[in-house]
Specification:
Number of domains of chain A: 1
Pfam families (chains A, B): TetR_C_24 (PF17932), TetR_N (PF00440)
Largest interface: A-B, 40 and 40 residues
Low-confidence stretches of chain A: none
Number of strands of chain A: 0
Radius of gyration of chain A: 19 Å
Keywords (chains A, B): DNA-binding
CATH architecture of chain A: Orthogonal Bundle
Distance between the termini of chain A: 48 Å
Protein name (chains A, B): TetR family transcriptional regulator
Number of helices of chain A: 10
GO molecular function (chains A, B): DNA binding
Organism (chains A, B): Flavobacterium lacus
Largest sheet of chain A: none
Shape of chain A: elongated
Order of helices and strands of chain A: HHHHHHHHHH
Oligomer: homodimer
CATH topology of chain A: Tetracycline Repressor, domain 2
Chain lengths: 191, 191
């Protein structure tokens, strides 16, 4: 997808409003007002709230999909692959937390082809992560515990990071990366 | 709170409906219909959808609060305390996943005193878990990494378990307990 500057401004502001008020409660008029333009001008750039939702969610879902594909097809060690997945989620969370909130809360408001496309990307993303974990167990890099629980323990933390990462001031990307990698790879217990 | 059998039936069915359609979209009529009774009979037992929401959420939040208080005030080792917190979330998730979905999705629809009471319980719950983690670091039982990241990595996984625990058939409470404890205490890497 190619996004113009004006569209980028629209989706940035819309994502904030969706997060604050919920997708269903926000109107095109609210978005125009927040941008300080007339609703008619907004329609010159974008045809509906639905189109905005698609731009926000599909853009970010495609980024997750593309980077995950690179990671899963790389020759890295599994531990490195997991670190790269953590890195990917931190990158997007720090850059675009509002859009992530929108993806998590409002994806079910997508329709038809876009909904199917999104669900397909999400399913493949999980399947790819599962593949990394099972490759790690096979190679002896990872402990042999219930793989679904491992997959969703890590993914739950990464997917909800946008909700809690800014509860602490001064929590930089590097500290997030190191701590999450330590927690999941080595555990919190001191041995 | 003391809940009659009839009220329990109402909140069980309402929690399912809230999960399927979203709190705002469900009417008292829908709830009566799902119970195969007239709306008028429903009002004999409960005065509003808001009262149902309070019953569902406050009940479960109080259970989390009470057990967490027991754990934090016990003389257990910190590693045991963390295992008991994991156990608490598994217990409630397996017993009452619909109510947990309601708590997570709809708590913001609580009003006035109930909203304040809920937010207070949630804040204290996080503060108590934070206390366990910092006690563990002080005692040398836990690694000294960023405590907020540790707190929310573990809580995110436990709080979203209701979304993923039943993606795998045959995932029993004991396997969940062992795997989550292993992941967070010892890490997934094979040493």
């Amino acid at each position: 997808m190619k996004i113009t500057d004006r569209k980028l401004e629209i989706i940035t502001i819309a994502a904030q409003l969706f997060k604050e008020k919920g997708y269903s409660a926000v109107t095109m008029r609210d978005i125009a007002q927040a941008m300080n333009i007339k609703a008619a001008s907004l329609y010159n750039h974008i045809k509906s709230k639905q189109e905005i939702l698609v731009l926000i969610i599909i853009e970010i879902a495609e980024e997750f999909t593309n980077v995950m594909n690179e990671i899963v097809n790389s020759n890295d060690l599994v531990l490195t692959k997991i670190e790269r997945v953590i890195q990917l989620h931190i990158d997007i969370t720090l850059r675009n937390a509002d859009a992530l909130a929108c993806l998590n809360n409002d994806w079910m408001h997508l329709t038809d082809d876009e909904l199917q496309y999104f669900v397909k990307m999400r399913t493949e993303y999980e399947a790819n992560f599962r593949k990394i974990i099972s490759e790690g167990v096979l190679a002896g890099e990872l402990k042999n515990c219930n793989q679904e629980v491992v997959v969703f323990s890590i993914l739950s933390t990464l997917r909800t990071m946008y909700l809690w990462y800014n509860k602490t001031k001064d929590l930089d990307a590097q500290t997030l990366q190191n701590t999450i990698a330590t927690v999941f790879l080595k555990g919190v217990a001191n041995k």
